[in-house]
C-alpha cells in the first residue's frame, strides 16, 4: 500500500495530479468546489470527500492546486489543518507564499510551496520537475509520493523561493518563444516561412547554452556574479543602436513594435546611467534599480 494523498482543486493541473497518483497506486481522495468535476476520477478509483474536513482527515499529505492562494483559505475555511503537510502548487506572488507559510504555522500545519515546471500533460512524465521551498524535512518525508509528479527540486527554506524560481523560468520561457514568434513574423513579411528561420533560431539557442567560447549564458552568468561587464568587442552602446534598428525594421514591416521597443529602451536606459562602454551584462543594473537616474 502506497501513501495516501488528498488533492484539493481539480482543474486541468489538479485533475492530472490526482490521476497520476491513482495510476501509481496511491489511495487518492479528492475535493473540488464543483464536485461534479471529480466524477471521472471517482470512476478510476478516487474517493470524493463530501466536506473539506473529510478531505483533510483522509491523508497526512494534502496537495493543493487551485487558482491562487486565496482559494486555499476560502476552501479550507475553519476546517482544521493541524498536523497536516500542505503542499500548495498554485501560482501567486512570493509575498503571498511567505504569508501562507506563516498562516500554516499558526494553524499547526507545515507548508511546502511549489512551482510546477510543466503543463498538465507533462505531469509525471520524463523531464517534469517541481520547485519546492519550505521545511525540507517535510519534503523528505513525502518525497517518494511527490516524485510521482516530477523530480523534486528543493530550493530553500524561504516559502517564496519556489515561486521566484518558477516565475524566473516562466519569464525566460515566454520571452524566448515570443522573440522567436516576432522573428518569424518579421521574416514572414518578406514571404519567408517559419521553417526556414527555425534552424537558425535553434543554433542561436544552442550557442546561448553551450559550454564553448560562444556559450553566452555561461559568459553572462560569470559577468553578473563577478560584477564585471567587459564591452571591448561589443559595447552596450553599439547593441542599443542595433536594438533600435530592430524596432525600425518591425515598424517598416508593419508588425508590432512593443517588444523590440521595450528592449531598445532598456538598453538605452543602461547606456544613460553610464554602462554604454560595458557589455550586455551592464543591463542588469537598471533591471535591479529601475529608478536609477543618469549619472547616479
TrEMBL record:
Residues 5-154 form the 6-phosphogluconate dehydrogenase NADP-binding domain. Residues 158-288 form the NADPH-dependent reductive aminase-like C-terminal domain. Gene3D superfamilies: N-(1-d-carboxylethyl)-l-norvaline Dehydrogenase, domain 2, NAD(P)-binding Rossmann-like Domain. Keywords: Oxidoreductase. GO terms for molecular function: NADP binding; oxidoreductase activity. It comes from the Bacteria. It holds the Pfam family NAD_binding_2. PANTHER family: CYTOKINE-LIKE NUCLEAR FACTOR N-PAC, OXIDOREDUCTASE GLYR1-RELATED. Belongs to the HIBADH-related family. This is NAD(P)-dependent oxidoreductase. It comes from Actinomadura montaniterrae.
Amino acid at each position: 500500500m502506497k501513501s495516501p494523498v488528498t488533492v484539493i482543486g481539480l482543474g486541468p493541473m489538479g485533475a492530472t495530479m490526482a490521476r497520476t497518483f491513482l495510476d501509481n497506486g496511491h489511495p487518492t481522495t479528492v475535493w473540488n468546489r464543483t464536485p461534479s468535476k471529480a466524477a471521472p476520477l471517482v470512476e478510476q478509483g478516487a474517493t470524493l470527500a463530501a466536506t473539506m474536513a473529510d478531505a483533510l482527515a483522509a491523508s497526512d499529505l494534502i496537495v493543493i492546486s487551485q487558482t491562487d492562494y486565496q482559494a486555499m483559505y476560502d476552501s479550507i475555511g475553519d476546517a482544521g489543518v493541524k498536523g497536516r503537510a500542505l503542499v500548495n502548487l498554485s501560482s501567486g506572488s512570493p509575498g503571498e507564499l511567505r504569508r501562507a507559510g506563516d498562516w500554516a504555522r499558526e494553524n499547526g500545519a507545515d507548508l511546502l510551496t511549489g512551482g510546477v515546471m510543466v503543463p498538465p500533460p507533462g505531469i509525471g512524465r520524463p523531464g517534469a520537475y517541481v520547485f519546492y521551498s519550505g521545511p525540507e524535512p517535510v519534503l523528505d518525508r513525502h518525497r517518494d509520493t511527490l516524485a510521482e509528479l516530477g523530480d523534486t527540486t528543493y530550493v530553500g527554506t524561504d516559502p517564496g523561493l519556489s515561486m521566484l524560481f518558477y516565475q524566473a523560468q516562466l519569464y525566460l520561457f515566454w520571452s524566448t518563444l515570443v522573440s522567436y514568434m516576432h522573428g518569424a513574423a518579421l521574416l514572414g513579411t518578406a514571404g519567408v516561412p517559419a521553417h526556414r528561420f527555425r534552424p537558425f533560431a535553434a543554433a542561436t539557442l544552442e550557442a546561448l547554452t553551450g559550454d564553448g567560447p560562444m556559450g553566452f549564458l555561461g559568459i553572462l552568468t560569470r559577468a553578473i556574479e563577478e560584477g564585471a561587464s567587459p564591452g571591448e568587442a561589443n559595447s552596450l552602446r553599439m547593441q542599443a543602436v542595433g536594438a533600435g534598428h530592430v524596432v525600425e525594421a518591425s515598424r517598416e514591416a508593419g508588425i508590432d513594435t512593443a517588444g523590440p521597443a521595450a528592449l531598445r529602451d532598456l538598453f538605452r536606459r543602461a547606456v544613460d546611467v553610464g554602462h554604454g562602454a560595458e557589455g550586455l551584462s551592464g543591463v542588469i543594473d537598471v533591471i535591479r534599480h529601475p529608478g536609477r537616474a543618469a549619472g547616479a
